[in-house]
Design a protein that fits this description.
Blueprint (H helix, E strand, L loop, with lengths): L27 E3 L7 E4 L6 H11 L4 E4 L13 H15 L5 E6 L2 H12 L6 E7 L13 H10 L3 H27 L2 H10 L4 H18 L12 E6 H5 L16 E6 L12 H18 L2
Parallel strand pairs: 2-3, 2-4, 4-5, 5-6, 6-7
Antiparallel strand pairs: 1-3
Helix pairs in contact: 1-9, 2-3, 4-5, 5-7, 6-7
C-alpha cells in the first residue's frame, strides 16, 4: 500500500488547496480561520466541488478533506472496515486540539458514523456528525437478517409500507449487489472505454471500483452497525425523504442522540451546487457555531 507523505514530525503533509476538477489523493485544507475545522471524508471523484462549496460558506472555519484509500492495481479496498481504518488514522495524524466535527456526502457518511462509534469510548471522540443526503444502512440491509426485517414489517401500519420495506431491504439490495458484482468483473480498461463513450455515465464507471466492493461487503454483512449517542445534523432532499417511512432516512435506530433533520432543495447531485449550496452551508455554519459554544 502506498505510504502517505509526512512532515518531519511524522504528521501527514496537508495540501493548502485543490482545484475543483482534480481528484483528491492527499489531505487537503481549504480556508483559514480560528474556529475548529470541519473534517470532510472525501470519497468520490465527483465530490470535489462539494468540499469547495463548504469551504466558501463556512468562513472562519477551515475544511479539511481526507482522501479515500489509495487504489492498488486500480481497485480500492473491498472491506468496509479497511475504509474506516484508513480515515480514522488520518484523523489521528491531524492531532486536532478542538472538537471533532465529521461530515460526509452519500455513502461517505457511513464511514463518519463508524468512526464516531469507534471513538465513543476511547480516543478523541466526535462531537458532531453531519450527513449530507445519506440513507441509512437499513436501505441496504442484508435480507438474511430476518430478525431486523420482521421487526420492521411489524412496525408497518399499512400494506404499502410493508411493500416499501420489502422493496428497499430485499429487492433493491439484491439488484444493486448483482450490478456491483458485474461491475467488478468488467476489466478496468473496458470501464474506462465505456466512460469515454457514455459521458453521462462517467461517474458510475469511475466510481464502480469503490462503490461495488462496498455494496457487496454490506450485502454479505461483513460489517454490523451499532447505536451511538453522537449529535447529528442530517441534510436531506425531498426525493430522499419520500423514499422513507423513517423520518431520519434509515438512521432512526442507530443515531439515538440529539438529531436534527433539515430538508434542503435540489437533488442528491445538486444540493451543494452554486445555486443551492449556500443555503445548506449557512445552516451548517450556524449549527457548528452553536456546537462551538456548547462544547459540541
Amino acid at each position: 500500500m502506498r505510504r502517505r507523505p509526512t512532515n518531519h514530525d511524522g504528521r501527514p503533509t496537508i495540501k493548502s488547496r485543490a482545484g475543483e476538477s482534480e481528484e483528491i489523493n492527499e489531505v487537503v485544507a481549504l480556508g483559514t480561520g480560528s474556529r475548529p475545522p470541519l473534517v470532510y471524508l472525501h470519497c468520490w471523484p465527483a465530490d470535489v466541488p462539494h468540499m469547495h462549496q463548504l469551504a466558501q460558506g463556512l468562513g472562519d472555519r477551515p475544511v479539511i478533506s481526507l482522501p479515500p484509500p489509495p487504489a492498488v492495481d486500480g481497485e480500492f479496498p473491498r472491506s468496509f472496515s479497511e475504509w474506516v481504518t484508513h480515515y480514522d488514522r488520518l484523523i489521528d495524524d491531524l492531532c486536532l486540539d478542538g472538537p471533532l466535527y465529521l461530515a460526509g456526502w452519500s455513502v461517505a457518511f457511513h464511514f463518519c458514523f463508524e468512526i464516531a462509534r469507534r471513538r465513543a469510548d476511547g480516543k478523541k471522540p466526535c462531537q458532531m456528525l453531519v450527513s449530507i443526503d445519506s440513507e441509512g444502512p437499513d436501505v441496504h440491509a442484508n435480507p438474511r437478517n430476518l430478525r431486523r426485517l420482521v421487526a420492521k414489517l411489524d412496525d408497518a401500519s399499512t400494506w404499502r409500507e410493508a411493500r416499501s420495506i420489502l422493496v428497499d431491504d430485499v429487492v433493491r439490495n439484491i439488484i444493486q449487489t448483482s450490478e456491483s458484482a458485474v461491475q467488478l468483473i468488467i476489466p478496468a480498461r473496458w470501464r474506462a472505454t465505456m466512460a469515454d463513450r457514455h459521458p453521462t455515465s462517467a461517474f458510475w464507471w469511475k466510481a464502480s471500483s469503490r462503490l461495488a466492493p462496498l455494496r457487496i461487503a454490506s450485502f454479505g454483512q461483513c460489517h454490523r452497525y451499532e447505536t451511538i449517542e453522537t449529535p447529528a445534523l442530517i441534510f436531506a432532499t425531498s426525493r430522499t425523504i419520500s423514499r422513507h417511512t423513517d423520518e431520519m432516512l434509515g438512521w432512526r435506530h442507530l443515531l439515538v442522540g440529539p438529531v436534527e433533520v433539515v430538508p434542503v432543495p435540489g437533488s442528491h447531485w445538486t444540493l451543494l451546487d452554486h445555486d443551492r449550496g449556500p443555503a445548506l452551508v449557512a445552516r451548517l455554519d450556524a449549527a457548528l457555531c452553536d456546537a462551538d459554544e456548547t462544547g459540541g
